[in-house]
Amino acid sequence: MNPVSWFEIPVNDMDRAKDFYEKSFDVKIEIHEMGPALMGWFPNNPEAPGAAGTLLKGDTYVPSHDGTLVYLGVQNIEATLEKINANGGKTMQPKMSIGEYGFIGVFEDCEGNRVALHSLT
Fold it and tell me: In terms of CB atoms within 10 Å, which end of the chain has fewer, N or C?
């Protein structure tokens, strides 16, 4: 079992962040209220590899470039970065080889978070 099973990406404006991630990653994000927190769940297939996660708006969640870096798996880093830039994000590190482990890229989302991409090709 891989040690990571869940991730949370802090947001200030859930509607803006939901729109950004849906358009940039071609996914549908479901909004759920969990006590005082507002969550935007990414699609989750328990049978598929990888971790599930959410956008999260809450008192102690602050978008940042600091701290943990979440990598989102994509088929095409360059095409995804183009969508990210078109939807209010910004490329911080273009596609870069990491040898036999594939490729990575890093972006700033519409909320000011530093997030990364990973692809095998």
Answer: N
